[in-house]
Amino acid sequence: MDVYLDMIRPSQEAKSGVPLGDYQANMAMPLAKKLGKPPREVARQIVEQLNISGIGAPPEIAGPGFINLRLKDEFIQTLLQKAIADEDRLAIPAAEPGKRKTYLVDYSGPNVAKPMHVGHIRSTVIGNALARMLRFQGHHVITDNHLGDWGTQFGMIIFGYKNYLDAEAYQKNPVEELSRLYRLVRHKIDDETTKGRRQTADGRRQTTDEDINAAVLRETAKLHAGDAENTKIWQEVLPHSKDEINRIYERLQIEFDHTLGESFYQPMLENIVEDLLQRKIAVETEGAVGIFFEGKNNQPEGEGKDNRPAGEDKNNIPMLIRKSDGAFLYGTTDLATVEYRLKTFKPDAILYVVDFRQSQHFDHLFKAVRLMGVDHIELSHVKFGTVLGEDGKPFKTRSGDTVGLGGLLDEAEHRAYKIIKENDKTVKDRGDTPESELRETARRIGIGAIIYADLSQNRESDYVFSYDKMLAMTGNTATYMQYAFARIRSIFTKGNVDVAALRLSVAVSSPPSFHPAERALALELLKFGESIDLALRDYRPNVLTAYLFELSNRYSVFFEQCPVLKAESDEIRTSRLLLCDLTARTLQKGLELLGIETVERM
User: Fold this and answer.
1) Strand segments (E) across 11-149
2) How many Cα atoms within 13 Å fall on the side-chain side of residue 517?
3) What is the pLDDT of residues 439-469, one digit of tens each?
4) pTM above 0.70, yes or no
5) CA spacing 20 to 30 A to 180: which of 86, 286, 357, 586?
6) What is the pLDDT of residues 10-33, one digit of tens each?
């Protein structure tokens, strides 16, 4: 039955601009196919059995079998009064106890050996928004930042630390020097055109570019084997890197329940491989161990010969969990992570907010987990696209390096400050705003703009990064939403309205009838809970941003057509003030669920 109830959706406007109804039910068409009857006949039978006299006008059948529904104004008023009276949840019910789940949301997960860059913004803000919305729905949410603190990137840092460290620069700014070392080693490995031999700083030995890559892998293997020198370097540089990452999270107002990096699971890897071998879920082939999902002839990628029969799908690659040299892989760590999470947190669902390039990895991981007998939990790869520059390529600096996330936030705050500084000069009755307030407002607007610009995209699509578009005062931007909120709050300041006292008047505030713009705004306000439900159905925050944008547009029309402080009667004035207040609270709560702060004035 739920599948048919999902077919009741808000109505679209006809070409004339007149809504066909408040809601439209479209289940008659699919039911007609099952029943072998004309859709209009099925729609007629549904309408005959439908009793909505308490909430709406008699349903109407349109077209091939659409059922149009229009709510009564009195019913809308009743729902509005409940929302106004509920300060915390705006009358949006939490999930019933029997339907509440435990969600583990795995997001952000940067490599600790290098600063966070623009590519990390998507996982970080999408995961944070989903966790906030799920908590608001009443679910138990556990957030885990699965840091990359043990992989090849640390082999690069260790190699750079041993060979190219500027000790004085490291003492002054360890994070900056570690970043330089990472970039230096990365560039040396990537520089395929340089074939000559390069000499290390001490002049004692020579290393070619090809040798550097091999040396990095050796340093990584030594770290994983517990080498004392490499472990000491790892322990030395790790805290500095973590501190830098945490500063970014503080700016984004993001906290995690747990931060368990790859290194946390290293002691568990050997046991999980042996367990999978004993259970015959994994098999050994020429010294390597892998999990084979289909057929017996597939072999782990990069190991042994390709003995697959002609015509067999070469994309059907098994999951390698231990190399022939004994090294473990990301897949091994992820299997150990799942096992730990199941035992420790007992989740009903695990969401991995990771970019689309890891799709095959998670397809293999989920198949492997199912083979392990775990079939009672939801496993979802919440994948997303790439942040692009104006040239349509992945967003880079002019020098070709990936844009640092810290610098990205700095620039957004700087541009927001210039905008509000100019705006402050044009507001004659405001006076000089304290510098501290301007800076705080710029922080909220700048960072909110970056977060919203990302979340407002279909997460699976790439999008072009543009400061100008993000900070625009019009269009689907956080700045527009924040401005709408501030504009509403200014009404109460200008009218010297006591908001707390106003809300107590809700029981006597209903006007004889709605103005069309009032009614449209009221209906949009009542869709807030539905928008959150729809956003979480497929883990798409852009559904909520689209709702907030539509709500802001509805309010703008209402503001233009319906005088508030100068309304024709005290009763209508009170009613419209309550609508304004509820709109502001809905915008504030919606932005909060996205991880965005509001401002009292702009």
Assistant:
1) 23-25, 60-62, 66-69, 102-106, 140-144
2) 15
3) 999 999 999 999 999 999 999 999 999 999 9
4) yes
5) 357
6) 887 644 445 578 989 989 988 988
